[in-house]
Amino acid sequence: MTPRRAAIVVLCWNRWDLTRRCLETLKAHTDLAEADVIAVDNGSTDETPARLAELLWVRVVTNATNLGYVRGNNAGIAAAPADADVVLLNNDVEIHQDGWLDALRETAHASVDVGIVGCRLVLPDGRLLHAGTFILPDTFWGQQIGALEMDVNQYAATRDVEGIVFACAYVKREVLARIGGLSEKFRSYFEDTDFCLRARDAGFRTVVCGAVTLVHHEHGSTADAPQTFEAVFQESRKTFRGLWGKTLEARYRHELSWQSILNFPTGYAMSCREILRACERVGIRAAYEYVYGPGTPFPVREDENARDYVLNVISARKSGRRPRASVVYGQGDVFHRNRGRHRIGYTMLEVDGFPEEWVRQANGMDEVWVPSRFNRDGFLASGLKKPVHVMPLGVDVDHFHPAIRGVPNPAGDFVFLANFEWGERKRADMILKVFNQTFRRTESVALVCKVINVNAATNVKAQIEALGLSTRGGRIAFLHNREFPYHQLGALYRSADCYVSAGRGEGWDMPLMEAMACGLPSIATDWGAHTEFMHDGISYPLKSRGLVPADARAPYYKGFRWADPDPEHLAHLFRHVFEHRDEAAAKGRRAASEMAAAWTWDHAARRIAARLDAIG
Amino acid sequence: MVSDADELERLRKEAAELRAVSRELSAALARAVATLPLPAALALARGGDAGADAPYPLEPWNETIEMTRSDVAPEMALLWRRLPAREGA
Predict the structure, then answer these.
(1) B62 falls in which pLDDT band (50, 70, 90)?
(2) A interface test, pick of B44, B56, B87 with most A CB neighbours within 10 Å
(3) How far apart are CA B54 and CA B46, in angstroms?
(4) How many angstroms separate the CA atoms of A578 and A444, rounded?
(5) In 3D, which of A362, A426, A379, A383 has the Cα closest to residue A562?
(6) Residue B56 contacts by C-beta under 8 Å, 6 or more apart in sequence?
(7) CB A383, CB A358: distance < 8 Å
(8) Does the predicted interface ipTM exceed a cut of 0.90?
(9) Which pLDDT belongs to residue A222?
(10) pLDDT given at position A614
(11) CB proximity A183 to B under 8 Å
(12) Contact A570, A430 (CB under 8 A)
């Protein structure tokens, strides 16, 4: 079938330097046999009119004065062939990717209900600027997804979004036929989200095609006039609020009080951040409150700044004195701080039972949530009498997927990766010794250990030296106390070939899940909460020799048991994976597919929504 | 009279300032190590207590003052340079 023709509308107002780069890169990377280029000169007073007149491949529409962004673009849309799709392209965008237009067009025509297609935008310095937009009704302040993250090819899939910035917007003719052009209630700003919401009301989806990345010199045309920018922006914001306020408020189906921990480098905090963001996406209006602090087992005050816009908004919300439903997400000895009318305690643990105090407090809840059947069984065996629901956690497949750009070993060594906090539970000693003994220094294989140690009394270096590792054995490299921005962590996994998690017990094992989502084969102990999502079709389960007393510093483990991972089997699996790379890679690919299909944070949040529906 | 709350607040502020200074020093050290020639970076990373007699010399070790936030790509590039060479390669 002949692809539908597209008219690319480039709005220009002075700044010929930007327009020249835009058009040059557009011509270099676009098949112009299937596209028209329309430059709308919005009353430029510099050399733009004269220069545009020299470009015979560009059709020029001239406005006598600057009509603003909206009316300027509408002039371009009106000039486009009546049967063509339209691409709105800012003149401060550069194109460095062949096939960009084809990819946008294919995405737009992959389904009849796709109406608008955007793309990833990056800044000239390589940081991601945009992978879609959303506006929270708390503030009516537009947010660009992924903004200012270092670009590691996150958000590479095609995803549904609320809106996109129209620096590059592929709009199907069907949408224009139904809703017309940009709303002239706006001069600039918010017209793009307004257009996407009007399209949604008309039955069209807005998506971001993650396979296309363009460079955007943001605010190129107004960068020199901040007062103008501010005035126009605030006027449009007010207009937008009046038009869409009720619609945005109506996105919430549930209210939920969420008492937890957010701004510390702990597993609960990291997962709490993801849960709250996902709740927002699936229509749960959560209000966050710190559950620890003075009078609790963790008597430290929490920084109020989450350094994340959405989380700060959720933290600023008030849930009232007795919210209808409240979740305490944390250790079971803070369940008693739950303030809800329907009280839910949500927790996990790495051993085969739960401490008496946790069970006592859990029995004071209306219901208990745990992420795994492993923990459900442990809770029930420890005396839990209240209803318990398995509510698995998830993984962020926008930041953890197989197309994330890693930094592969330049020597081509096969790389095993372990990522853990130093301590008895993770069996670092066993992993290092077994790896060092299994391989020889002559072999093209290495182990990278990303080790975190927060205990000043523990000398990790001395403990490693005490292991007596052989210089002739397998080579090991350490990343000690290196904390990476979470959005870049996928690049660490994608720098390796196989992930190793040979610990004694897990409450969930988020790093394992992240590695699997990145498409890595994995070796993981076949005991613990992670068996909820890990199995031998997508991983290499490591045998346990049985259960042993959970001797560690954590007081919560006292009297319980955990696994005794088998070092001989670990040696076998190390060697097997190294020698069967194709088989391992296939498992890794299946793991990534399974994580994306069933284990995302949105899946987790939708389960919460379903549970709230049932609670009523 | 200075109340406990005032004193606590003063200490909290002081601790926050010290942590900030410590983080700045860690970040500066990490930046410096990243720009050093490999032998100098390794010498700095080893410190004075991991001599040639250690059973496993920990060439790939990279000590830090406290947890340091850094970008993955330069960190991994440095890590691959620090990985002991394969024997016979």
Answers:
(1) low
(2) B56
(3) 12
(4) 10
(5) A426
(6) A436, A464, A465, A467, A468, A469, A470, A471
(7) no
(8) no
(9) 54
(10) 97
(11) no
(12) yes
